[in-house]
Amino acid sequence: MSSKSHPEIKVGILGATGTVGQRFIQLLANHPYFKIHALGASSRSAGQQYSKITKWKLNTTIPEFVQKMVVQECKPDAEGFADCGVVFSGLDADVAGDIEEAFRSANLIVYSNAKSYRRDPLCPLIVPLVNPSHLDIIPHQRSSLSLSKGYIVTNANCSTTGLVVPLAALEKAFGPLETVMVTTLQAISGAGYPGVSSLDILDNVVPHIGGEEEKIEWETNKILGGLKSSNKEFDLHATEQTKPINVSATCTRVPVIDGHTGVVSVKFTQNPPPSIEQIDKAFREFTCEAQDLGVPSAPAQAIVVHDAPDRPQPRLDRDLHNGACVSVGRIRDCPVFDVKFVCLIDNVRLGAATSSIMNAEIAVEKGYIQ
């Protein structure tokens, strides 16, 4: 934990009544310096107390001070938002784009969980345990849009996040990767509320999640790539030293409440490839900038390696380090590629709200939020 103290920073939450919005509230309720100041939701919820219009689905109660807060429309001129040092967006993708752009245009800072700006060449796509250096494109985003303060930062798709953390550990230790194949087993909470029909998911595996495979296959290279020397362009993992990683994803929905599992096979460009013992060591020793900075939401371990042959498991391992780490297990030789393993992420914490919060905490340390 950082020993630094920060002045209070008021925050807003867009989509506050939804699944991700509820997680934002739960995680921010006792934050050392981010203080919930404004809540935004649909026009039909605006003007009412939060507790009266929210179907709270978490295993903790709504924080007492939040219960009586009056929900506003998701507009930058709605009461409270203008005072916020950062606005967290848990909005559904179908409405997020225009709303987040309106907030940015009003010179407000938006940290988004939605997909709308992940492919935008001005917006960083950040997994906080992997690539916070991409925040350095913020001055270019501001200047390109003639903004003095406002900008948008996005976090990744929840399954992409669980995949790229162990991949980053492998690239850090052994150089560029050539090919990655992943099959995901994704929890129903990833579909929001009310989500997947019980008749579709009980006693079943659904071998398709619309748009999910394309997100993983594209996002991985933006995240694991770098910024060009001008800090004005992402290299998408294509440089003189690296080629884009070939990524193939198959995404399935399984009857698990929280926790996305990934079954991963990797081929290295290094030949011969590292040994299983070296790979295991690289996972265990992986550290990241969020830990170096000591931000409040950073896990003590970025990757937890499990030795038991039947781990990780969602029900047993998703809560490790308050859901802010990635679990890895079953590290073994792959007869087709080089190595295969199983990874697990808490999709609603590190895969969603925790990532946005940790990204913002890192931005505070780097001076991009004041």
TrEMBL record:
Superkingdom, taxonomy of origin: Eukaryota
Keywords, comma-separated and alphabetical: Amino-acid biosynthesis, Methionine biosynthesis, NADP, Oxidoreductase, Threonine biosynthesis
Enzymatic reactions: L-aspartate 4-semialdehyde + phosphate + NADP(+) = 4-phospho-L-aspartate + NADPH + H(+)
Family annotation (Pfam families): Semialdhyde_dh, Semialdhyde_dhC
TM ranges: none
Top enzyme class: oxidoreductase
Enzyme Commission no: 1.2.1.11
Stored InterPro entries: ASADH-related, Asp-semialdehyde_DH_CS, Asp_semi-ald_DH_pep-lack, NAD(P)-bd_dom_sf, Semialdehyde_DH_NAD-bd, Semialdhyde_DH_dimer_dom
SMART domains attached to this UniProt entry: Semialdhyde_dh
Gene Ontology MF term list: aspartate-semialdehyde dehydrogenase activity; NAD binding; NADP binding; protein dimerization activity
Functional pathway: Amino-acid biosynthesis; L-threonine biosynthesis; L-threonine from L-aspartate: step 2/5; Amino-acid biosynthesis; L-methionine biosynthesis via de novo pathway; L-homoserine from L-aspartate: step 2/3
Example GO biological process: methionine biosynthetic process
Function: Catalyzes the NADPH-dependent formation of L-aspartate 4-semialdehyde (L-ASA) by the reductive dephosphorylation of 4-phospho-L-aspartate. Mediates the second step in the biosynthesis of amino acids that derive from aspartate (the aspartate family of amino acids), including methioinine and threonine, the latter of which is a precursor to isoleucine.
UniProt similarity note: Belongs to the aspartate-semialdehyde dehydrogenase family.
Protein name stated in the entry: Aspartate-semialdehyde dehydrogenase
Lineage: Eukaryota, Fungi, Dikarya, Basidiomycota, Agaricomycotina
